[in-house]
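U., I forgot to send this yesterday:
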Amino acid sequence: MGVYYAYQYQGQDFRCCLFRRYLYHTFLTHFLDYRSFKTNLSKTTQVTFTQAENNLKNVLESAFKNLSLTVLTIATDPEITQMFADGDREGLAKALVPYYKSIEKRV
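Result:
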């Protein structure tokens, strides 16, 4: 089924099938390509997940800083702290509901 040729090696006559050698070569080449692809895919996946993790971490840190500044601003407002101290729920509602409504729309 293929082209055969003979050659001498150390006094022995070898008959090799070119087609078989081609199959071995093709198999080896594809195996090495697959192994390379698998390695590259693994590295790319790891880098992508690391970038996604860092992006999420940055977004969460930014949101926490913004929330901290908002809470700090409200907590240091003398009028609001006085309303908390007095237990003035209506005054707190009037002062803070607009903030809550603006945040509620974004969330």
